[in-house]
Design brief:
The complex is a heterodimer. Chain A is an alpha+beta fold. Helix content of chain A is 40%, strand content 19%. Chain A has helices at residues 71-83, 181-198, 223-230, 248-267, 313-321, 327-338, 342-348, 352-362, 367-385, 389-392, 395-406, 412-425, 429-435, 444-457, 459-467, 472-482, 489-501; strands at 13-15, 20-32, 91-92, 95-98, 108-111, 121-128, 131-144, 148-150, 159-161, 168-174, 210-219, 240-245, 275-280, 285-291, 301-302, 309-310. In chain A, the strands form four sheets. In chain A, strands 1, 2, 6, 7, 10, 11, 12, 13 and 14 form a nine-stranded mixed beta sheet that branches. Chain A has a three-stranded antiparallel beta sheet with strand order 5-4-15, with no helix packed on it. In chain A, helix 11 runs antiparallel to helix 12. The two termini of chain A are 56 Å apart. Chain B is globular. Chain B is 37% helix and 13% strand. Chain B has helices spanning 9-18, 23-35, 48-64, 105-112, 160-167, 184-190, 224-234, 278-293, 309-324, 345-356, 359-372, 378-400, 426-430, 437-442, 471-485; strands at 43-46, 74-78, 116-121, 173-178, 193-196, 216-221, 264-268, 297-301, 405-409, 446-453, 459-466. Chain B contains 15 helices and eleven strands. Chain B starts with 8 loop residues before the first helix and ends in a 10-residue tail after the last helix. In chain B, helix 4 links the parallel strand 2 and strand 3 (116-121). Classes of the chains: A alpha+beta, B alpha/beta. The A-B interface holds A 57, 60-69, 96, 98, 100, 102, 105-108, 158, 160, 297, 299-301, 304-307 and B 81-82, 88, 90, 95, 98, 100-102, 104, 204-209, 211-213, 239-243, 319-320, 322-323, 325-327, 329, 331-333, 345, 349, 369, 372-374, 377, 381.
């Protein structure tokens, strides 16, 4: 694998009334593990099922029920850790986080506070060609999701749906290395991309399968560097945590608002108090949910129903061997092997299916031209049609069309026409060219005859063109028109120049 | 005609196999005995239809000739075990009307082996108590009395109903559970045998949790042989319980040779408590002599951290309980308080739990919440965990020295009178567990065997503590002690 070199982006600076301020952001991403069964029960994780239909006795916390770890979920966490170049802990343990809520039947969430399964890792957050931020991952732990309380179905009652109760989540905790709202959104985007590559989380933010708690603080320029040198948090401001964000746009807006709120407090002589806040997208503001004093005392302690989780290095190695090529490697390979630009490589590697589509489209052809074709012609049309590119055009058709362009059988212009027809009919591109007689006319005799006719009919134009060679284009256009666009443009250009100058 | 209720489990098994009696006959006899013993309040829910149905099935199985040992034998099940379609309330008001849709692994294994469930047995609420007085059903009563005094005595706790029922011949045997001594103390108070196996031997799945790292089920029987037979039927790996161990289960009964020559029996000096009643001391000395006479080598040993065990236990057990009992919130099952206008979820929790939990349960939930809370966690819970490790090491050290089993008293006294402790400091009640909690903290097997009576004629028991996973060896030592002690006293029937 080839490393791409990159520059570190400048931190976002917000000018307050008195000073400039920088932002310091850390994220806790809660990613629902892609698995058929829940973390500690055999119940299904299928989204959208009838309320309370995916509930095992242990999920509803019936008396005497016990959790049993789902090995597949552990493998998914390990896979995620390896994908984030993180340390895998061969021994981890589960703890209980105790609090009362109707959608938490046990009265505690089984989580991993003291000994998480994954330790320190890193993630490269792309901010544009040649610019990226390396963000440190502090830890990843496995935990149970809660159920859903429904408060608006009845004026007097609340309802509880336990389908999501006990579904496995990975909490991926970053260090406070993110320096602006755009970086935070880019971090989540990159995290989502990697998780989707790994197949460990589907990244569906709308369904809440990927959501983030955002920790925001402000500091004066220079302070962050002192923190990085010492890892001493006292150089940084007091942080506030914005809970449960599930949209990139809201994450950015919430951070922006929260930073300005904190700046106003500090510049007004006040102190930011550590608290948990909620973002209200309607009013575009964050509101206090609970202060540090009101914070729950979760009374964490080791879950006595589960033995420490011990895994073998060999098992981890096997998972590592099965890891797919990840976005950074794929992007570097596309740039190096296909000669595509970094920007195009980013577009093409955004999703695995797209990257695969691109590679299948290249066939024996030119990577760079294929990239342009896929991005400009296919993706444009697919987006418009709101469908996946592979459902619109098979990659083999792209390869066939581009091969005909490469061998001068058709022009780029005709290629687009062939694409349109293929999308309509699904006919083989070669057959389309054959049937419709779209093959480029390279026979100079035919082109010459057409040109001679045009010259004879337009003596005045010929005179003008002889004075001003730029007008030669008009003759090229007329020839193309006369040949129904099939004339080889190179041959036409040559002939026009010869005739007008000769 | 023999009184069938007086049979031991082993005798009844042999009679069933010999065709001398049918399971239906046995079952009907016990059902009648239970109906006549309501005064003991041992059974809190009788299941005669289930019993007779299973008895018939067992008779058919026995007739086919390959029935397991427990087949056709009528037993009682402690209310802490969830039994499908049968009230399972852990003797608590908060589980009012709760009938599980599942069967605990232990009761299922017993059912699979053909055992006949007669009903559910009284206990302390959520197994928290040493006298059975915290039960929502009111306490069970000990069939034993002090001489001619008819004052009601406790059968001990928490498995008080099980102990009372077995001692009063209302069933051949019963299941118990033991978190800090809840099998061994009531066994000692009622002159029966009770073994708590090594933690992980018996599945906890479907047993209402008190303190998950300490809870362990076991049999309560009329003698050691019966304990061996029933324990074998209860043990075994269960993939539904992550703390259950995957080890082969030996034929415990076949290990009862009574030969303990050359075995090293440790006598821990720390168990000689200040103010120990003379008769307990005498019982212990006699037991020591009996084992010596049977050919064992007696070794004085030290378990230096013993004195910290009780406080550590009363931090760890309530801590786990406070979390385990959080699920009883009135949302999904059991009791839910009637709410006043304007009450929200917090009021629902508070009122439901205030009404549903008895005082002792509330006390332990509050203690547990306190010791886990921020700022106190290290001082209490973490310190208690370190103590637990030290206690475990104490035992490992003596076992490493070649000790095979440890002999101690089972309880600091004989059964006390019901109500006698009502006004006492709760710690006085907790002291009942002083000899037994170490075994739970270390996860070891422990057995209580009746070896004598006190001056008022009440039974007293000695405890033997074994090496982990060596219940067979422990049972054999207990068998030798039982043979030597020759304890045959039975309570006079007054009920």
């Amino acid at each position: 694998m080839l490393d791409l070199t990159y520059e570190t982006p400048k931190p976002k600076v917000i000018a307050g009334a008195k000073h400039d301020w920088e932002l310091v952001i850390g994220l806790e991403v809660h990613a629902q593990v892609s698995s058929n069964a829940k973390l500690f029960s055999g119940a299904s994780t299928q989204f959208g099922a009838e309320p309370n239909s995916n509930v095992a006795f242990v999920d509803s916390a019936m008396p005497g029920m016990l959790p049993v770890i789902n090995e597949y979920c552990v493998a998914q966490a390990v896979r995620t850790g390896l994908g984030l170049k993180a340390e895998i802990h061969l021994k981890s343990a589960f703890d209980r986080k105790n609090y009362f809520y109707p959608d938490l039947p046990q009265g505690y969430q089984i989580s991993q506070l003291y000994e998480p399964i994954v330790g320190e890792g890193e993630i490269l957050v792309d901010m544009g060609p040649g610019v990226a931020r390396l963000v440190r991952i502090e830890r990843i732990h496995l935990e149970q999701d809660a159920g859903k309380s429904v408060h608006d179905m009845d004026p007097n009652m609340s309802f509880v749906d336990l389908n999501r109760t006990g579904v496995a989540l990975m909490e991926i905790v970053s260090r406070p290395d993110i320096r602006g709202p755009e970086e935070a959104a880019a971090y989540v985007t990159k995290m989502r991309q990697i998780l989707r590559y790994l197949g460990t989380c589907d990244g569906n933010m709308q369904n809440g399968n990927l959501r983030a708690d955002v920790n925001v603080s402000i500091c004066r320029p220079g302070q962050y560097e002192k923190y990085m040198e010492t890892q001493d948090f006292s150089h940084l401001g007091t942080r506030c945590e914005i809970k449960n964000m599930n949209s990139m746009r809201f994450i950015q807006a919430a951070i922006e608002y929260e930073a300005r709120r904190q700046i106003a407090i500090v510049e007004g002589g006040g102190e930011v108090s550590q608290e948990t806040r909620l973002y209200d997208p309607d009013k575009n503001e964050t509101r206090s949910m609970r202060s540090k004093e009101e914070a729950h005392d979760y009374r964490y302690f080791p879950c006595p129903d589960l033995l420490p989780l011990e895994i073998e290095q060999e098992w981890v190695d096997d998972i590592g061997k099965g890891l797919p090529e990840l976005p950074d490697e794929k992007k570097a390979r596309f740039i190096n092997d296909y000669g595509v630009t970094e920007y195009d490589a980013s577009v093409l590697t955004a999703e695995v299916y797209l990257a695969n589509y691109f590679e299948a489209s290249v066939g024996k052809g030119d990577g760079k031209k294929t990239a342009n074709w896929v991005i400009n012609e296919v993706l444009g049309r697919a987006n418009k049609a709101e469908t996946a590119p592979q459902d619109l055009v098979a990659p083999e058709a792209n390869a066939a069309i581009l091969a005909m362009v490469a061998s001068d059988e058709i022009s780029t212009k005709i290629a687009k026409e062939v694409l349109e027809i293929h999308i309509e009919t699904k006919d083989d591109p070669a057959k389309i060219v054959e049937d419709k007689g779209l093959k480029q006319v390279t026979d100079t005799g035919a082109i010459e005859a057409a040109l001679d006719e045009i010259i004879a009919a337009n003596p005045a134009q010929v005179e003008k063109a002889k004075q001003n060679p730029k007008l030669a284009g008009w003759f090229v256009g007329q020839v193309m028109k006369a040949t129904g666009g099939k004339a080889n443009p190179k041959a036409v250009n040559q002939l026009v120049a010869q005739k007008l100058n000769g | 005609m023999t009184d069938l209720t007086k049979l031991t489990l082993a005798e009844a098994r042999d009679k069933l196999r010999a065709g001398d009696v049918t399971s239906v006959e046995l079952t009907e006899t016990f059902l009648k005995a239970i109906d006549e013993a309501d005064a003991l309040n041992a059974f809190v829910h009788k299941t005669p239809e289930i019993a007779l149905e299973r008895a018939k099935a067992a008779d058919a199985r026995i007739a086919q000739g390959d029935a397991p040992d427990m087949c056709g034998l009528p037993i009682g099940i402690k209310d802490l075990f969830c039994t499908k379609g049968v009230p399972s309330q852990a003797a608590s008001a908060i589980l009012e009307g709760f009938k599980p849709e599942y069967e605990s692994t232990i009761s299922q294994k017993l059912e699979d082996s053909g055992a006949v469930m007669l009903g559910k047995l009284n206990m302390d609420e959520f197994a928290m108590g040493s006298s059975n007085e915290t039960s929502v059903y009111g306490n069970a009563i000990n069939p034993w009395r002090r001489g001619n005094d008819d004052a009601a005595l406790t059968p001990g706790g928490s498995s008080g109903g099980s102990a009372s029922a077995v001692a009063a011949d209302l069933c051949l045997a019963a299941t118990g559970t033991d978190t800090g001594g809840s099998i061994r103390q009531p066994a000692a108070f009622t002159g029966i045998t009770g073994i708590k196996p090594t933690y992980g031997r018996c599945s906890r799945w479907g047993v209402v949790a008190f303190a998950s790292s300490l809870d362990q089920a076991g049999p309560m029987t009329k003698n050691v042989r019966d304990a061996a037979i029933m324990l074998e039927a209860m043990c075994g790996h269960d993939e539904k319980d992550s703390t259950s161990v995957d080890l082969p289960v030996p034929n415990f009964e076949a290990m009862l040779t009574g030969d303990i020559r050359g075995k090293k029996i440790g006598i821990p000096k720390e168990y000689r408590m200040d103010g120990m009643p003379a008769e307990i001391e005498k019982l212990w000395a006699e037991g020591t002599e009996m084992l010596k006479a049977a050919g064992a080598e007696i070794v004085d040993i030290s378990l230096p951290h013993t004195k910290y065990a009780l406080p550590a236990y009363y931090v760890i057990a309530p801590a786990e309980a406070s979390s385990n009992l959080a699920r009883y919130d009135g949302v999904r099952y059991g009791h839910r308080a009637t709410l006043a206008a304007g009450d929200g979820i917090t009021e629902m929790y508070e009122k439901t739990r205030a009404e549903g939990f008895g005082h002792e349960v509330q006390r332990r939930v509050m203690v547990g919440t306190y010791v886990l809370s921020a700022g106190f966690y290290d001082a209490y819970y973490n310190r208690a965990r370190r103590v637990r490790t030290l206690i475990k090491q104490d035992f490992e050290n003596v076992f490493a020295q070649g000790i095979d089993a440890i002999l101690t008293p089972a309880t600091p006294s004989a059964a006390f009178g019901l109500g006698e402790m009502t006004d006492a400091d709760p710690i006085q009640m907790y002291l009942n567990d002083v000899f037994t909690v170490t075994v739970n903290l270390a996860g070891l097997p422990g057995i209580s065997v009746p070896t004598g009576v006190d001056t008022q004629g009440l039974p007293l028991g000695l405890q033997l503590i074994g090496r982990p996973w060596e219940e067979g060896d422990l049972l054999n030592t207990a068998y030798a002690l039982e043979q030597a002690a020759g304890f045959v006293a039975k309570p006079g029937k007054w009920w």
